[in-house]
Amino acid sequence: MKYLAEVFDQLGVVAWKDKEGHFLGMNQMGLDVLGVKIGDVVGKKDEDFFPMELVEGYRKDDKEVLKTGRKKYFKEKVTDKDGNYIEMHVKKTPLRDQQGNIVGVIVLAIQE
Fold first, then answer.
1. Which CATH superfamily includes the segment(s) 14-111?
2. pTM score
């Protein structure tokens, strides 16, 4: 457990959102890419950080994962704190509660 936070931060960008797309949390690497602190992320949505032309694709993928309950792997672009586009390998998977109900989406993104 001593190194769990450091390991978690080395996985890539990790974020989790509720069914409506509000961020519930994000690891430090994700916060660094956006140039924000955790208090600036929780409760916000993709459109608070990314251009709408990207957000539409993010929402579509989230809805597919929520509807099917299946993982999805793909490449997508994100913008960093300086507005630069970054190509990422992304895995989206359902976030489930203790009863197995889908309550949101987990996002893992690794820079190419």
1. PAS domain (3.30.450.20)
2. 0.90
